[in-house]
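Q: Hi! New to this. If I give you a protein sequence and the SMILES for zinc ion, can you show me the bound structure?
A: Yes, paste them in.
Q: Okay, here:
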Amino acid sequence: MMASGRSPGSAARSVAFLIAFVFVIGTVDRAGADEPIEIFDAHLHYNWEPKPYYSVDEVLALFKKHRVTGILATSRPNTGTHALMDAKPQGLQVVPFIRPYRVRADIQTWFGDPFIFDLVQDEFKRGYYRGIGEFHISGRNADTEWVKKTVDFAVANDLYLHAHADDIAVEILMRHNPRARIIWAHTGFGLSTDRVAEMLSKYPMLWGELSYRSGIVDGSGKLTAEWRALFERYPDRFLLGSDTWINERWQTYGETMAGYRAWLAQLPPKIAAQIANGNAKALFTAAR
Ligand SMILES: [Zn+2]
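A: Thanks. Here is the predicted structure of the protein with zinc ion bound:
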């Protein structure tokens, strides 16, 4: 049957209108998507050995450029963290953690070194710290008097621990003091998602930081089913980080952030916002 009462001309106008309408909506959508999701970088080293890779002004510009609005700031030695705090940057939440290292070699020995515990206590006197870390600990190395003292000191002073550790060491840290609050650097690297889920469910005060964490995306950049499931089950337990432990990580800082945004975009917006910045804000903005 022929359509009655409508000339070919009016049909064309309708189509034109429809195309214009879709174009306008599309433009509005894209304008929203142009603003990249805000990121809190919860694993940042602003090392100062003896100078930082980027000056304070340069590094602050880098954060602004990549819309990083918060950082968990650490430095070896702690000089870099002091400089970031002294800068009092606008539009950037700096959350300082005490790095228990003077030089890189301390990574291997801090857990048996009474001098390091003194360093932590001295540094704490600055009054602005929110945590201790990142420190490295593996398996039974966590089972020392000095590690227990460090965990107890953190709990007594309402500090988070930022632990680069395997699951065994995380369990030992939690056993030292069940009130410990631990940010798990790298979330076990390649540990199975089943085991990560088991740890998150067993320890409600454990958060997974995702730098260098494998398995989140497949070879084509698509979020894997097991990580999607983990994020949906524990949306409030994950954080992002750059882990600028060597200069090359500063050189590729923008790519690291773009990599996070690529898989965050595949999650429901609410969960993406929690992982990108909301969880870190909740941890560090809450009353102490
Ligand atoms: Zn690190």
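A: DSSP finds eleven helices and eight strands in the chain. Let me know if you'd like me to explain how to read the tokens.
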